[in-house]
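sorry to bug you again but im stuck and you know this stuff better than me. below you get a single protein, a line of residues and a line of whole numbers that encode the local backbone shape. mainly i need to know what kind of three dimensional shape the backbone takes. anything you notice is useful, everything is just below:

***
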Amino acid sequence: MHNGTRLAAVDLGSNSFRLEIGRVDHGQIHRSEYFKETVRLGNGLDSARNLTHEAMQRGWDALARFGERLAGFEPSQVRAVATQTLREARNREEFLLRARTVLGFGIDVIPGREEARLIYQGVAHLLPRNETADRERRLVVDIGGRSTEMIIGSGLQAHTTESYRVGSVAWSMKHFADGQFTPGAFRIAEIAAKAVMDDALTNYTRDQWDTAYGASGTIGAVGDLVAAAGGRPGVVTRADLDWLQERLLKAGSADRLRLDGLREDRKPVIGGGLSVLRALFDLLAIDEMQVAQGALRHGVLYELLERDDGVADLRDATVERLAQRFAAEPAQARRVADTAAALFVQLAPAARGGAGSRAERALRKLHWAARLHEVGMHISHSDYHKHGAYILDNVDVPGFAVNETHALSQLVLGHRGKLRKVEASMADETFTAQLLAIRLAVILCHARRDPEPDVLALAPAGARGFTVRARQDWAERYPQSAHLLREEVLAWQKTSWQLALHLD
């Protein structure tokens, strides 16, 4: 990526939305602009886990302002990610449909462990890089609004990642709902936080890391308060947490709290955040924690940079590991993937050479889905496409957003059998073209051997149709493949799309 290129990351957190814009300079990203809006989306989840209209409107308004600032950016220069609140919200698609429009860019809902991995990337890239630092075993913690991420890593590599459903907004609403600070409320909040995170005692024990770092949100706010009170800048200790709790108890409530360095938007969630942080110090035997400068949004920026610069995309390695884990036959996976890609390019020529274009991204997703189309056979040959779709919707896949893996799962689900089960996704013409390509590829490769090259010619036909042409002599030489192709035409007749077959 050229020096001076601008990149932007949007973080849709449970408490705040953030926009970070940076410029590329010899492989590093230097901040040029930063915007933060306190949205408190997490406060808008009702008892049925639906976002209220008021909370959604706050989010839309903030994203509209971000979208105005991002005018002129290319899709390859921007990535927006959403975290725990939108992982939980049952009506998240209602929010995201308008959110993507007002922002002007796609929004990825990322799984908890993927959020943790990106947080680590952000922290690691902003720490000093040298041989000693790269050997350091790091514990990185990020207490967000509705989730807390923990990572152990070294250098730029995260080794252990986890996400827990406990955070400053959620714990403040649950244990300090009326804004009152009492010893009993803190005691119960800390016990509850430990109960959620107690399995960290196994995976994050003190002998597994050398230095603890705290990223963003709560830990950054506590670090600011400690420094403003004359403590060591950039460090939080157990004594500091005791001091801060005493100050909160002395104030008695959030509205009476007066502390140098405490922003107004942090007051309503400081009680919940502090109780979670104190629980972590106890659980993991932390004596002091360094306040890290990097955060989720920085990890998103550096991943954008690396993907554009041709650094191996983590998603490729993830797909390969997943295929191996579920014993998908490599030769057949490659065969179907290559055939599906060749067919899709006939429908979307821009997919070849249009790096970063929607068509090129669709081609990559089709290739991944084809490589994974048989992972369900590890469970059962019967309905293996359904098992494969379930796996992709529920397995941890580093590098992928929830919406990305769901798109792959729908292609795997729809690659054989009736089309009705993926009818909702077929409203998208790009998905439908991908689906046709993978279904035809499976037909051509059904004998588990390489098909003849260029045996089928595909073309769009009107607004909602396709034509497929094959040679008559091919149909005569491969009667089973030709039969499956005619059956495919019949399957499409039961949808709102049309597929016409011509044998020349």
